[in-house]
Amino acid sequence: MKKYIGRLIKIKFKDMGPLVGHLLAYSDDWMLMRNCPVDYVIDGYFITRNKNIKEVVRGEDEKWREKVIGLKKLKAVPQIPLTDLNTILKTLTKKYSVFSVHTKEDDVCWLGRFNRIEDKLIIIDDLTPKAKWDGQFKFKESEIRVLEFDTDYVNSLKRLAK
């Protein structure tokens, strides 16, 4: 992965659709990337679990998109320790207050903030699409594929929820 640091890559998963972004940091278990959801748009960041990745692609399309995005002179890189899920969730909640959780279901995500770990379940305070804090949801650690933060969607609902 070292050769991809700072490069735009496409990540293909075993059980969900692909994601595209700039690789900013990685560990044995996790990758931190600047999110490039479409064309030359940059929208926040995501952290993904390495064990669910099937393939990393850096073809001509990714190189071209990187060249165009490079004209934006993006520099800021969030400092997120990629050690373990508990540390990642605590850091995201402390620094960004709200993030989204994606499982292998492509069209569903949950917004919220980390609450606690209980009986091997991650408990997140739920922020609804109407920007209301509404209970909690629980995940097994293994269900979490992607954590997304500092996106326009997340930030918009976070502002409304205050």
Report on the architecture of this protein.
The chain has 162 residues and is of the alpha+beta class. It has two domains: 2-70, SH3 type barrels (Roll); 85-161, SH3 type barrels (Roll). 20% of the residues lie in helices and 39% in strands. The protein contains three helices and ten strands. Strands 5-1-2-3-4-10-6-7-8-9 form a ten-stranded antiparallel sheet. Strand 8 (121-127) and strand 9 form a beta hairpin. The protein is globular and about 45 Å long. It starts with 7 loop residues before the first strand and ends with a helix.
How is this fold's topology laid out?
Elements: E1 8-13, E2 19-26, E3 30-35, E4 45-49, E5 53-57, H1 60-70, H2 85-96, E6 99-102, E7 109-118, E8 121-127, E9 133-140, E10 146-149, H3 152-161
Specify the overall morphology.
Answer: globular
CATH T-level fold name of the largest domain: SH3 type barrels
CATH C-level name of the largest domain: Mainly Beta
Roughly what fraction of the amino acids lie in strands? 35-45%
Domain count: the total is 2
Radius of gyration, whole Å:
15 Å
Tell me the structural class. Answer: alpha+beta
* Corresponding CATH architecture of the largest domain: Roll
Provide the succession of SSEs: EEEEEHHEEEEEH
Distance between the termini: 39 Å
Short note summarizing the structure:
With 162 residues, the protein is α+β, with helices and mostly antiparallel strands.
